[in-house]
Amino acid sequence: MKVIQFTIPVNKDKSIHVQEDDLPHFYEHLHRHHEIQITWVISGEGTLVAGNNMQPFSSGDIFILGANQPHLFKSDASYFDKHSKKRIHSLNIFFNHKGFITSLLEFPEMRSIKKFSELCLHGFQASENNAKIIADYMLKVKNNSGGYRLSAFIELLQLMANLKDWKHLNTESFEYAISDSEGLRMNDIYQYTMNNYTENISLEKIAAIAYLTPQSFCRYFKKHTQKTYTSFVNELRINEACKKLTSNDFDCISTIAYQMGFNNVVTFNRVFKSILKKSPREFMKEYAGKIED
To answer: 64 is in which domain, residue-wise?
Structure first.
């Protein structure tokens, strides 16, 4: 039986660890590490859970994950089909903001980079236009070594510190005070939910997965995510519904509603609008407008 770790050790033989992944799917378990992580999803689609945030990801996206921020990139179900030939490809850069770079950040010229690294705690997503620029600098880091890699890395940090339009992945009030054992328990909760969200998951069932009573589970989940379990399931269902709506691979909206586990289209529309502040039809119209541009 494979042992799952919650706090993952990152290679310490270099100040900057560069990792390129070309795999059948992303590592599917909730985990964290002491390093800040910059991830460029070169190809792949799925759902990102970062702290108490959940959202779809797709090819071209770039994320910054904070130190000790629990996260997982859950590839879409099609990547786990044994007949599928789909693969993911990503480039990741890890660095310890309390390691070698600490002394560098004390230089006056590094003031903006220091401020930016402190803001990275809760995670960021780059805008579509900025992601293309950042990707080029990440390749420069990857393709260099020694002092040239360090120089390229500082250029990358300065670039990111100068860019605007970053999307926060978490609110500043969210804390990552979670033990390894609690992290593993949250992983079990996420794994079961993400694999069974189309079903009617009873509170008794998910509480049993976490080895808690229903009442204790509700308190536990709210404490570690700042949201109710029902809200989490609904966000997951709406995220998956958005992927369906943008794929044009569906008969009608009501079909998607039932596929996502909703009992009727009225409830689906209400939950969709409460989460995204727009109806499914408005969402599709807005998406079509972006494609035309």
So the answer is: 16-168
Question: Looking at the structure, do residues 40 and 146 belong to the same domain, yes or no?
Answer: yes
Domain boundary among 125, 151, 168: 168
User: Which of the four pLDDT bands, split at 50, 70 and 90, describes residue 247?
Assistant: confident
Domain count, the chain: 2
User: How far is the first Cα of the chain from the last one, in angstroms, to the nearest whole number?
Assistant: 50
Characterize the bridge pairing of strands 88-95 and 16-23: antiparallel
Asked if residue 204 belongs to a domain, the reply is: yes
pLDDT tens per residue across span 35-62: 999 999 999 999 999 998 999 999 999 9
Does 11 or 276 have the greater pLDDT score?
276
User: What tens digit of pLDDT does each residue of 95-136 get?
Assistant: 988 877 888 888 999 999 999 988 888 899 999 999 999 999
- DSSP letters, 49-68, are EETTEEEEE-TT-EEEE-TT
* Collapsed DSSP state (helix, strand, coil) of residue 222: helix
Q: Crossing angle of helices 229-247/280-292, nearest 10°?
A: 50
List phi, psi (to 5°) of 50. Answer: -135, 110
Q: Which amino acid is at 255?
A: T
